[in-house]
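Design job #97: recover the sequence.
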């Protein structure tokens, strides 16, 4: 069997009530990434057990703290592991592509960058609805004005970071605001960053849960609250 090229990489997968799909997400990702930590943010379903059966290391929050807190827990755990050099934040609902994550890590290996941020607007693969496109572009504009970090997609959960970035980025915003906080910290610490084209796959499962519309509304609310 060919040795994995990603033994120095950890996938960080926050999960909350995704028991229907997270096991498959983990098992598919393990074909490329041998190190995956899934942070179960006190799910009410079998998410933790499904992730464990899929092959991930599973950490569990005793109370629901939000996605930002789950990411921070996972990043702290992964950064403490021997030989860990690269870290990918990866959604548990099947919308992110393993091939994109792998390509982002490979870029970090050879380019003078600390962070790669996924953007669904750099190519034509992602089929986002018109309202979501407008809101995400508004978010990117607000982030640029507030932080100086120039992005086309400021609220994309697929990110690749090196160890230097993880040592600087400490997430304190637990819920939707964590995405803005990460961008702010990139600017504050003058981390070297770029965007990478990624395919966000809006599945029947995610659409049935209403994630696309609710995330858009949450993002819009965050823009006017902060």
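Job complete. Output follows.
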């Amino acid at each position: 069997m060919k040795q994995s090229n990603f033994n120095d990489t950890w996938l960080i997968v926050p999960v909350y009530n995704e028991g229907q799909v997270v096991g498959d997400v983990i098992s598919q990702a393990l074909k490329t990434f041998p190190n995956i930590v899934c942070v179960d943010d006190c799910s009410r379903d079998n998410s933790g057990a499904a992730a464990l059966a899929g092959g991930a290391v599973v950490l569990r929050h005793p109370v629901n703290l939000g996605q930002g807190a789950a990411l921070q827990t996972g990043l702290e755990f992964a950064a403490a592991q021997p030989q860990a050099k690269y870290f990918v934040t990866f959604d548990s609902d099947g919308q992110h592509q393993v091939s994109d994550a792998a390509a982002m890590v490979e870029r970090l290996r050879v380019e003078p960058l600390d962070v790669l941020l996924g953007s669904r607007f750099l190519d034509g693969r992602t089929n986002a609805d018109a309202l979501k496109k407008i809101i995400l572009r508004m978010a990117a504009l607000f982030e640029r004005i507030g932080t100086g970090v120039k992005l086309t997609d400021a609220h994309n959960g697929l990110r690749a970071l090196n160890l230097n970035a993880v040592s600087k980025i400490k997430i304190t915003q637990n819920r939707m605001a964590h995405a803005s906080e990460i961008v702010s910290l990139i600017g504050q610490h003058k981390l070297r960053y770029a965007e990478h084209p990624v395919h966000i796959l809006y599945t029947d499962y995610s659409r049935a849960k209403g994630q696309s519309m609710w995330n858009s509304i949450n993002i819009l609310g965050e823009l006017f609250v902060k």
